[in-house]
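@channel anyone free to eyeball this complex?
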Amino acid sequence: MKLDNIPLNNKIIKVLKNLEIFELYPPQKEALPHVLKGKNMVLAIPTASGKSLIAYIGIVNKLLIAGGKALYIVPLKALAKEKYEELKSFEVLGLKIGISTGDLDDSDPRLFKYDIIVCTSEKADSLLRHGINWVEKVKVLVIDEIHLINDYERGPTLEIIISKFKALNENIQIIALSATIKNSKELSLWLKAKLIKSDWRPVPLREGVCLKNKITYDNGKTITINENGKKSLEILVKNSIKNNGQVLVFVNTRRSTMSVANNLSSIIDNIINKNEKRELIKIPISIKDSVNEINSIDKKLFNFIKKGVAFHHAGLSSNQRKTVEQCFKKRQIKCIVATPTLAAGVNIPAQCVIIRDLWRYELNYGMRPIPVLEYKQQAGRAGRPKYDVKGEAISIAKTTEQKDQIFDTYILGEPEPIFSKLGSKSALRMHLLSSIATNFVKTIDDIYDFFDSTFYAHQSDTQSLKYDINESLNFLNQNEFIEFKDNIYFATLFGKRTSSLYIDPLSALLLKNAFEKSKCEKPTPFSFINLVCSTPDVRSLYLRKQDFWIEEEAQQLKNEFLLKTPDISSEEYEWFLSDLKTSLLIFDWIEELTEDGIIAKYNVGPGDIHNIIEMVEWLLYASREFARIYSDEYLKILNELITRVHYGCKKELLNLVSLKGIGRIRARALFNENFKTINDLRKVPLERLSKVKTIGAGIAKNIKNQVGENKKKKNTEIYEFFK
DNA sequence: GTGGCAAAGTGTTATTTTCCCAAAT
DNA sequence: ATAACACTTTGCCAC
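replying in thread with the prediction:
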């Protein structure tokens, strides 16, 4: 259907044409009239078949007619960025686009001036908890990847946001985007939405299973591949690349990503030509970020990239991930070997997808088959629009039985239905508290009514839900998060802070008890690091066989624990050690152990380090807020510690690190050459400064600008007193 | 029989992942 | 459950 035949605002059509969109895909065509009428929608169609565009048009159309705001909710920060950038094209229509994710420079008041706001689900929840004053202005709510309602950790949040917005704003239009799921009908009934379901794809997908040298396709055809001494995976990759394609290989461990990349590297190296190689060699140099240390993962990655292949998993830093993804999109890298993260993230299509592992290790369960939904998401990455006529998704089987099973469950099978996880204890205590703390609900009937509107109630027996709610209310009451008077529930100061700090009530309780009851005589920075690492909000590292050294550390540090240490024979002892391991990592970080040192000592990637730092920093912040209430003698040590964790440095560098463009590395270099204070930097000549290791002329100038006499000294002087 | 080296066999180890705060610019 | 790696044993050849 050509764009010109669509009853749509001309201005919008013009924007679409600028985006080189001249006609709509069939599912888009089907959905559009309903969206334009302002109806609630559930779009259950494959990824990359243009779901977001329908949401964009829906939003823009509504806002141009009725004014107000729209909220676009996504599951990942990286996706928020992607959507934000796509939506920017609509700014010419006079709509302002905003993004709000944890690590971007946006605070709540600023969001008021935006018309379309992109954020993660937790951020949206957090905004609601802080009582934003523009809730009733939200006319359109888009939920991307709504099937994540099925997720134990994050699903309940999604459900709560939807239910709250529906309660606060009766006429809100909800546009839900979903992967194909079995019970999309049920979902659409809950949302009172029009359901559009389709398997249509812009590039057709052919699925197959490879057993030994034979591939059987979903249309019944078989082909045989054979080449001396090569595994079928290697032949598949080779053939695809030779035909001008690109390949994604999915495996189930990080270690495997590297070993498979290694096996493929010489093969791919042989295919690519000299020009391509020249381009590839440039890549590493162009992304070297002089603020960060070059770590061993960088080196490994660059060695592969040189040969046109890369590995990809959550242990990579965000820079490394971005480089791999972008170079693949630019078609410089021919093959990425990845863990399932890649399938859930930003859209990275390839001509051929190879799914080597359909099993995955799960704690307490051993190896289990991955959900069909996940298989479909991985397979769905096959087929690059504009480049490929057909996408190919091949799974690897080892036996005939496996082959048949893959066909039955994955290729011909239907994705699982999704189930609400709101009934879990942790979800209930978290969301009950926040609902009470924001006065969203007051009486027990309010609470029942509200939970009655959730997907959970839509799916399950409400009687048992009432029982679970009461149990959680009792827990919150007994631990002084909430009180109950004259039939009204209200939150205590402690409860309100817990809710607005966005931490698990169990974490809050742990922190509070430590502050009020700890017998630790003289808490050190380590004490507080260990405290926050013991909360359920900080996910601890795995223990391995060679980690016995941690037990010895426990002995050394025995006087610094704020919490009681469990008995060696007790069940909690393993948890304790794994929390301790995480604490020690952070302690090494603030004692300026190099990134590579940490990577080797703890067997983690730079991405893991970054994640742990973020979690610990966030909980230290929360601890400081509780310290204000319960023990302000800890304020100073906590403030200092938060900055040290942020930068990864010793106390003596706090002055220097407060300057922009100066991280732990440069600060250390300056300090070692005896520039220890802001005043030292003010006195030194520019030329001398630019001779310091890791500091060039540009940075030196930058420093001078910041410390120059006429400039404001507010920021830079804050840490002088730590000396 | 012995040294040198590659292939085959045995044993050990570890196992995927995301988001949440506030304040200032 | 299984891949990946480290380590040991076996097999083979030339001398």
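from a first look: The first strand of chain A starts at residue 41 and ends at 44.
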